[in-house]
């Protein structure tokens, strides 16, 4: 069985935080309802315009990616990002060398 992934979605805001916050929290809740994966929202400590959503554990990325895309479209999440760009990165735990 493949290791569960951590999915990171990061972007710079193209709108104010007050406008973006309800959109992103609705998206995170929608993803949880569709997949059971709980997301968290982070803000870069030295740049409050850079946000990152963290989703883990993601056991079936194909299913998760479809749910995330549907939630992004439903909540117009790209509209809050600068140049409508949201970047997705996927990581898995590194096995111990011992």
Can you lay out the helices and strands and say which pair or pack?
Blueprint lengths: L4 E8 L4 H19 L3 E6 L2 E12 L2 H15 L11 E5 L7
Antiparallel strand pairs: 1-3, 1-4, 2-3
Helix pairs in contact: 1-2
Strand order of the largest sheet: 2-3-1-4
Proportion of helical residues:
25-40%
Report on the biggest sheet. 4 strands, antiparallel
Beta-strand segment tally? 4
What's the level 1 CATH class?
Answer: Alpha Beta
Order of helices and strands: EHEEHE
Weakly predicted, low-confidence segments:
none
Radius of gyration: 14 Å
What is the average of the pLDDT values? 95
Task: Give the CA-based shape.
Answer: globular
Termini separation comes to: 20 Å
> Can you tell me the CATH architecture?
2-Layer Sandwich
Enumerate how many helices there are, as a single number.
2
**Per CATH, what is the topology?**
Alpha-Beta Plaits
Number of domains: 1
Kindly name the structural category.
alpha+beta
Taken as a percent bin, the fraction of beta residues is 25-35%
Describe this protein with a few key phrases.
98 residues; alpha+beta; Alpha-Beta Plaits; 4 strands
Task: Write structural notes for this entry.
The protein is an alpha+beta fold and 98 residues long. The protein has one domain (9-91): Alpha-Beta Plaits. The protein contains 2 helices and 4 strands; from the N terminus they run E-H-E-E-H-E. It has a 4-stranded antiparallel β-sheet, covered by helices on one side. A hairpin with a 2-residue loop joins strand 2 and strand 3. Helix 1 runs antiparallel to helix 2. It is globular, with a radius of gyration of 14 Å. The protein starts with a strand and ends in a 7-residue tail after the last strand. The model has no long low-confidence stretch (mean pLDDT 95).
